[in-house]
């Protein structure tokens, strides 16, 4: 069985509130990917729809999208792993193509979070954790990640200033990303200015500036068999390695609070499958839903030793010109985080980088890129390695 | 008229807002009412569970017994929430935390009367039953 390629990528603009329904939102990302791949719906023989449930009212969105996007009568699948849903969709597409069941698959991620209020959304996200034993205490994602931040700071001496540097980097590139929600400049000083909204507390020790924003958005990745890719596409980007892992949904079932074991394990699998090591990665997209999440990603992916992630950001090694550029599209911190669409947006950035089509944020001549996409509080870890 | 069906939904009393009403671990609520926080232990293989479970994944038996959480745990980490999800807004600010008892860990809240500046990772705390402001039951961590 041959290789599997990505032959088209697209995403909608990520916005606070999308002026349309979910099928219309999905159309935006799908359209861009189809135009990018220069194919028609005739070329696609299956679709995979990825999102987290309970933001909109539609049950079984896959069937609705298949009709709206002109993908009937081909089968469609619904994949859910919270914030890493579309990376899990990529994994499913890879296996369906490898099995020979399908040749060209559209992996469509979407989320319209604006259908509910912000505090309702916090409650929904909190219920992505253990609803029987933890949600009754009033949990939410920023507080869970704040507990990891606290443990990381205690063990390794990581500081809030170190975390602020990650947001400053994100905003440096977010300003250049016309599809990002947050495009304003962010300075280090804003985190110590009591007048600045970014310095406001959310869940100690994390501040507003440490958190990404909710957003509406869609993404689409067109995945194809080697034969179809060579036939349809001039610049296919190959899937070299995939890793996926899980851990205990509740915190008492875990032993590590300074990193995410599912990310470590997914990374190990992906590196092994690709036959490479962390130093071979030329550009990476990591799941920076919170600044501490990017810091832990540096360490879990092997870009830095445990506890030394702060040195990478202090020395600007994760900037575009550094030794391992990370989130040069602004990351979730700038783009916003439309749960099911996020993984597809990360994949899009890496594909554009590997095709040398990333414009202002183009990293010099990258050959191998990595996507790190996390669902829940490290509950699901997905790592994908792509090469040109 | 048939006899009214009895529904054992005791678990709806757990926490400020409970999202589960029916579970095989419903006795946990009776223990809370009696002032005890309890976990379960598999009688076949001895595996200890907190939060309590009705079923053992190791030996696939559903033969568990209750044990009381006692003594002190070490504070692993915590966070004080300044904003709350819907249903919990009346409680802010409040602290969620994780205690390590060695053989098991407990996720919960730190008692309201412990000021945040007195909380330190590594400090010893104990777990006690608590009545919430809306007359529900949970447990909180207190200084020892």
How are the SSEs ordered, and which strands pair?
The complex is a heterodimer of chains A (388) and B (144).
Chain A: E1 4-11, H1 22-37, E2 46-50, H2 61-68, E3 76-79, H3 85-98, E4 104-112, H4 118-126, H5 141-156, H6 160-174, E5 201-203, E6 206-207, E7 216-225, H7 226-232, E8 237-246, H8 261-274, E9 283-285, H9 291-300, H10 309-314, H11 331-335, H12 339-354, E10 368-375, E11 380-387
Parallel strand pairs in A: 2-3, 2-4, 9-10
Antiparallel strand pairs in A: 1-7, 1-8, 4-7, 5-6, 8-11, 10-11
Chain B: H1 27-33, E1 38-42, E2 48-49, E3 64-68, E4 73-81, E5 94-100, E6 105-110, E7 124-131, E8 137-143
Parallel strand pairs in B: 6-8
Antiparallel strand pairs in B: 1-2, 1-3, 4-5, 4-7, 5-6, 7-8
Task: Describe the protein's architecture and organization.
Chain A is an alpha/beta fold. Chain A has a domain at 4-117 and 214-232: Peroxisomal Thiolase, Chain A, domain 1, CATH 3.40.47.10. Chain A contains twelve helices and eleven strands. In chain A, the strands form two sheets. Chain A has a nine-stranded mixed beta sheet, sandwiched between helices. Chain A has a two-stranded antiparallel ribbon with strand order 5-6. In chain A, helix 1 (22-37) crosses helix 2 (61-68), helix 3 packs across helix 12 (339-354) and helix 6 (160-174) packs across helix 9. The radius of gyration of chain A is 19 Å and the shape is globular. Chain B is mostly beta strands and 144 residues long. Chain B folds into two domains: 10-68, no CATH class; 73-143, no CATH class. In chain B, 5% of the residues lie in helices and 34% in strands. Chain B is built from one helix and eight strands, in the order αββββββββ. The radius of gyration of chain B is 17 Å and the shape is globular. The model of chain B has no long low-confidence stretch (mean pLDDT 95).
């Amino acid at each position: 069985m041959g290789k599997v390629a990505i032959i088209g990528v697209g995403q909608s603009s990520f916005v606070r509130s999308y002026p349309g329904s979910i099928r219309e939102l999905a159309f935006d990302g799908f359209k861009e990917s189809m135009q990018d791949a220069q194919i028609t719906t005739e070329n696609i023989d299956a679709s995979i729809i990825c999102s987290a449930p309970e933001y909109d009212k539609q049950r079984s969105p896959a069937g609705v999208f298949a009709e709206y996007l002109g993908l009937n009568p081909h089968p469609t699948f619904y994949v859910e792993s919270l914030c890493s849903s579309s990376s899990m969709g990529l994994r499913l597409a890879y296996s369906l193509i490898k099995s020979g069941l399908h040749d060209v698959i559209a992996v469509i991620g979407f989320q319209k979070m604006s259908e509910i209020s912000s505090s309702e959304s916090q409650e929904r996200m909190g219920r992505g954790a253990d609803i029987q034993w933890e949600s009754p205490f009033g949990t939410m994602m920023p507080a869970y990640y704040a507990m990891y931040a606290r443990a990381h700071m205690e063990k390794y001496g990581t500081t809030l200033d170190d975390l602020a540097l990650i947001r400053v980097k994100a905003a440096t590139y977010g300003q250049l990303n016309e599809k990002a929600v947050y495009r304003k400049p962010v300075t280090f000083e804003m985190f110590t200015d009591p007048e600045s909204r970014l310095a406001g507390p959310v869940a100690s020790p994390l501040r507003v500036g440490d958190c990404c924003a909710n957003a509406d958005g869609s993404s689409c990745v067109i995945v194809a068999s080697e034969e179809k890719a060579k036939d349809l596409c001039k610049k296919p980007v190959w899937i070299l390695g995939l890793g996926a892992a899980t851990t205990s949904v509740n915190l008492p079932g875990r032993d590590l609070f300074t990193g995410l074991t599912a990310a470590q394990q997914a990374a190990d699998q992906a590196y092994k499958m690709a036959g490479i090591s962390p130093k071979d990665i030329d550009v990476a997209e990591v799941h920076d839903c919170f600044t501490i999440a990017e810091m832990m990603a540096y360490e879990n992916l092997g870009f830095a030793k445990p506890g030394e992630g702060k040195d990478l950001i202090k020395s600007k090694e994760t900037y575009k010109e550094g030794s391992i550029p990370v989130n040069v599209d602004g990351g979730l911190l700038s783009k916003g985080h439309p749960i099911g669409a996020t993984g597809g947006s990360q994949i899009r950035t890496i594909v554009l980088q590997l095709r040398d089509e990333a414009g202002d944020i183009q990293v010099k001549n990258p050959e191998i890129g990595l996507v790190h996409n996390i669902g829940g509080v490290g509950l699901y870890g997905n790592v994908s390695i792509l090469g040109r | 008229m048939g006899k009214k069906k009895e529904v054992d939904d005791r678990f709806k009393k757990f926490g400020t807002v409970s999202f589960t009403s029916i579970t095989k671990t419903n006795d946990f609520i009776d223990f809370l009412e009696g002032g005890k926080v309890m976990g379960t232990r598999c009688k076949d293989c001895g595996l200890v569970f907190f939060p309590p479970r009705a079923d053992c994944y190791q030996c696939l038996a559903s033969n568990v017994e209750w044990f009381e959480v006692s003594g002190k745990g070490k504070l692993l980490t915590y966070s004080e929430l300044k904003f709350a999800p819907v249903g919990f807004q009346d409680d802010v600010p409040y602290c969620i935390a994780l205690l390590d008892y060695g053989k098991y860990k407990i996720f919960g809240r730190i008692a309201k009367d412990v000021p945040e500046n007195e909380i330190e990772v590594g400090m010893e705390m104990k777990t006690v039953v608590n009545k919430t402001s809306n007359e529900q039951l949970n447990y909180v961590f207190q200084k020892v």
